[in-house]
Amino acid sequence: MKKLTLIASIFALQMMVTGCQQAEGEATQNEEVEQTDITEPAEDQSSETGEEEKDVAEQEKDIDTYLNEQYKIDQMHYETDEWESESGVLNYTVKLLPDTEAYSLEMEKQLQYANGELNEEVEALFDTAERIMEELPERQEQSRVDSVSWVSYNGDATVTLIQDFENSEKQAKESLSEYTTEQIEYARVWLQLGANQDIDELNVWHIPAGEKLNPDDETSASYPEDVIQLAGSRLVDGSVTYSGNGDGTINVYNVPLRWDGKYPAGEDFYKEIIDQTKLVPIDTGDDQEVIGLIQLLNDHK
Questions:
Q1: Helix, strand, coil percent values for the chain (each to nearest 5)
Q2: 0.90 surpassed by pTM
């Protein structure tokens, strides 16, 4: 009888142990299921992020492809940068790049035209840039083109073909809004080309087309267009004489503030100066430096 009781006790003990092992196994399995449920959303979030990045890359690719198809220029291609302004407007910066270094060098020479005279290839660049500025925003609501520029093959030269200075939200700061487009232009030109930045006054002289380059020489040729002459209050400050193109570039005349030498110099001497007029893209510069120069302006209208 005692033997039967002992056997029954051992059997009951084995059943208890087996029951505990099964309970532990079920608990472990439940924990694994719970852990799996927790990690699955993280995998889905990572997948969604990857899809969003892919969509952005595809959108940028579509714009470049669209430009290359709709505004094709032989031996060149487009690249675009974009950013969203605080007002929610999508802004595009369009770059036009030569396909080869040889063609880049050829175009760079042609872009250094004299006296605003464009050949067919250069004129096509400016015309196409203007079309892109007007038409690209129609492709997508709440978007605008900030600028279209030609960039050399190695990236060391840039010519701004057209830029929307008036509506620019990237370049123009609120502190510049109280000044006119002309005042900002004068200051930016001097900031980039002025021989002396430490000036106490920035004079602006308006010279009409037909005025002689050198009023003291009867053989002097005349300006073929209206020009602006910027100068400090002293000869040492230097001067900049130019005409604006209204697209972020200017035509610079190599004319001194005061003519020294033997006169008459002859018409050919002055004609050569006109023929060597340089096309120069003007940077927007630092706003505070621009404002500082604007405050020194003395416009002799």
A1: 45, 20, 35
A2: no
